[in-house]
Sequence to fold (483 residues):
Amino acid sequence: MRAVTEEDGKFSFSFAEPSFASVQVSRTNYMATAFRRLSDGERSLTVKLVPLGATEGRVVDADGEPLAGISIQLIQGVIEDGRKIFRVVAGVGTDDRGHYRFWNLTPGSYYVKALGRQGITSRVGGISTPPETDHAYPTVYYPGVLDRQSANLLQVRPGQTANADFTLEARKSYRVRGVIKDPASHARLGARLMRDDEGIGNRVSIDTASGAFVIYDVTPGAYTLQAFAPGVPAMAMGETPITVGEQNLSGVEVALSTGVAVRGKLERLTTAETVPAATDLDDDAPIIVPQRTFFPPVQAVILQPGRLPVAGTQPPATVDQQGNFTFTDMLPGKYAFTVAGFGESVTSIRSGSTDVSVDGLEVGTTPPEPLVITLTSGRGTIRGSVAGLEPGESATVALVRANGSSGVPTITQAFQRPRSSDLEFQAPGLPPGDYTIYAWPSTRQVEYRNPEALGAILGKAVRVTLPEGGNEQVALEVVSVEN
Fold:
């Protein structure tokens, strides 16, 4: 059923008989949806919509003159697989008044980044030379610092406009000339300079026939030069370090590659086994047995999304009946890996001596040591209730298993059951062990793979010991989390 609100915001639905319903509300210039669960017998409810916000500012030079064509990016920290990564959510250029504006922004915290003048132009058989200048404006974060760690977070509040102005100082700049190797095998060539796994602003011209390129507006410093060619089914990319001094740099070469193969294996522990302590591994290694013929796919999560010029370059890897899998054409970067276990939990992820579940996997130009992902299934169940939320809200519940070589959390959701006012969750198929259990509103995000982030909310956590095949009941209270 669908209804449109009246002038006073009121709406109504008529039900033939008592029922359990979900109500979803949306309006232009407000957060996309507001969601409420309506319990049996509830006859009225109020839904509060949150208006979207905006960010704007002005970019001027040291003399106060407006700078047109300066690229501005809006960057937000998001949680993926329990880790915080930073993504560019929007980009825009300044107009002839040096003004820029982002609108329809979800309220929250953002970084604002000024990248100077940037853009890629290409043509077949020659270099398209933009208007040349011997000065450029280096990349800075608001309020004018060189790195994100020193930058100010801009708070975008509901229905309000946050302001972030920049004053940029011109610096002596130079050009970098070189060639992208093997350009004929790829289309739509691109190139950019990177610092600390982030792209900086430069104008680039490329001859797509020969692969010759020129990068303009380069201030002295150390960089990674990255060339790339989006393609189907795989993107090609190449990197090489360069250092620019007080003169133009020539003769740079960078070769394109579609990446390396990252191989691995899923293994299962017996349900009666627990992961032994590190000192016990030689004498009491876990027994690996084939419990099922089906393995779920493995998903890779790039932990440095700014290092790749496009998003979504790595599809999930399918796993054969022996547990083997391969990520083909994996581009350079640091990755985390997840497995949707269907009643199983990830005990550990390793690549040689690297604990990938903690440190991630650094992929370079040569294949890393094979991944070994260990899954554990169990017959235990932890269920419980969650308090501290408004009616209709849901909660995220994290169960961190303390014993074993890794505390990889099990994540589940707590919902209001039909014809009940209780918020409940259930986590079946758990192996035995000591668990620390946390709950927070589903509208909030928590770095649950970050021990410091979990430590900040430890006060309302509940600890429980689950025996083999046990059935434990807990009562949780949600923690207050600021995104």
